[in-house]
């Protein structure tokens, strides 16, 4: 993967994001082994779903989770906290966050492992 440092994205709240064969890193942030592993997990997810289907499923699941958070909170429009909770509960993110500290995960990861993270626990 090619690491690109940029001033404009990702947003200040995030350190990096994977897009095709690139990892975009916010200029001035420290890139750790765990962040690289997290983004590499996302890259594997993207490859498994031929990139475009990954982005479609990711967006659809994010929208569904935001709606679920709103319903749970009895609100019509989500708060920042609800949006953050929805993001953290996307199956692709759950797999990456749960395994970013596991140094052997990329060696042992099975294809489509993100599927087991779809159900909220």
Q: Your description of this structure?
A:
It is a single chain. This protein has helices spanning 33-48, 52-73, 80-88, 91-99, 105-108; strands at 2-6, 16-19, 22-26. With 121 residues, it is mainly alpha-helical. It has a 3-stranded mixed β-sheet. β2 (16-19) and β3 (22-26) form a beta hairpin. The protein is globular, with a radius of gyration of 15 Å. This is DUF4157 domain-containing protein.
The count of DSSP E runs of length 2 or more, i.e. the number of strands, is 3
Any idea what the shape is?
globular
Proportion in helices: 40-55%
Estimate the strand proportion.
5-15%
Largest sheet report: 3 strands, mixed
Q: N-to-C terminal Cα separation, in Å? A: 32 Å
Structural class: mainly alpha
Mean pLDDT score: 93
* Total number of helices: 5
Which residues form runs of ≥5 with pLDDT under 50? none
Total number of domains: 1
**Largest sheet: spatial strand order:** 1-3-2
If you compute it from the alpha carbons, what radius of gyration comes out, rounded to the nearest whole angstrom?
15 Å
* SSE pattern: EEEHHHHH
Protein name: DUF4157 domain-containing protein
């Amino acid at each position: 993967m090619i690491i690109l440092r940029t001033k404009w994205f990702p947003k200040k709240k995030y350190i990096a994001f994977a897009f095709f064969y690139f990892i975009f890193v916010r200029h001035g942030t420290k890139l750790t082994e765990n962040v690289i592993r997290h983004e590499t997990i996302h890259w594997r997810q993207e490859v498994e779903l031929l990139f475009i289907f990954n982005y479609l499923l990711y967006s659809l699941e994010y929208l569904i989770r935001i709606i679920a958070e709103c319903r749970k909170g009895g609100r019509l429009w989500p708060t920042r906290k609800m949006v953050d909770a929805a993001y953290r509960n996307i199956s692709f993110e759950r797999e990456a966050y749960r395994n970013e500290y596991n140094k052997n995960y990329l060696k042992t990861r099975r294809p489509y492992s993100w599927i087991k993270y779809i159900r909220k626990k």
